[in-house]
Amino acid sequence: MAYRKILRQLAKRAIFGGERLPARFFLSQVEPQQEVVVWLLVGNKSIDVTKRHCQASGLPFTICIEFTRGSVPTASLRSKLRLRLCEKGGAHRILSEVKLDYRQVIECGESEFLLFNSTKSINFCLPWFRIWSQNLWHSYVDSHRNSKIRVPAAQWRAIVATFSCPRPVSLVSVADDDGHGNIYPLNVMGDLGRNYFGFCLKHDYLPEKFVQRTGRIVLSSVPMKQAPIAYMLGPNHNCPTVDWKRLPFATRPSQIFRIPVPVFACRVRELQVERILRLGYHTFFLSRVLSDERLASVPELCVAHGFYEDWRVRNLGVDKLQATAEDLYVRSPISREVAELISRDSTYITKS
After folding, report:
1. What digits encode the pLDDT tens for the residues 4-13?
2. Which residues, in sequence order, are bridge partners of residue 300?
3. What is the mean pLDDT of the chain?
4. Are 162 and 96 within 8 A, CB to CB?
5. What is this structure's pTM?
6. Which phi and psi angles does 202 have, rounded to 5°?
């Protein structure tokens, strides 16, 4: 039996190109991350949209990009737009590209937000054969999953291409006037210029219904030291409400909404929802930033695709064992006692 198992493993390595890379790899970055820049290619111009774009839906895969009112690309150019993700320093190597298919525009305040779908992309993080073999493995696993929701392969590859850039993972706090509330991790989100922020939630799930009803959230950035706490709160997505007093860490009220946030948060932003759009499987929330507390500059919890992490090891001199240990640290199951301990393990003092 052991002999057959070894043969199967060898066959998989031969067919799928060796080590299978994870769809999510956790890593630490000091905000703002300095490894990747995201360019919008408009004709002969390249516009830095690193802090002006976000994923608005996963199915169909949708990207939102912010423009100052009156500066949006003309109708003739919108059919030729691409996102290009590049190494920020060094040789400025191209990591991936995503072709954008214009869908609609949202006007809000002094900004215009263009929404794009994408089904065409190219990824340069790995040699083409490894990309092909990894995608083949993903298709094989996806076909054997017991799920009614499946992202088409082309859209999945476009999502992977956009995660060639480290994306922050934050904790979302929500509460209503009746004392009900919740806190859970979120990473499908992003800055949309200085005053706006976008995020999406699965349509008709508990978190989406709660935000639809209250129209406000508080976003807490997570120091890498407290990352396992954020990971352990994942199941809260399925909870109608939580008891704030029973959380394994101390909280304090946010500045305006007075919604509980972790005392270990290194940045806290309060967001007022301005626009709500149903985009297939997800609901997109376009929000205005009402307050922004920057409490400390420390390594924060981020996530990228395994393709990019492999590229970092080969091209940026990242220690693979150390990076793997960091990823495992985030995913490691922890007890309430350990959570309470690491929630106090900070090198800075938050406001009371």
Report:
1. 666 666 666 6
2. 29, 223
3. 92
4. yes
5. 0.92
6. -60, 130
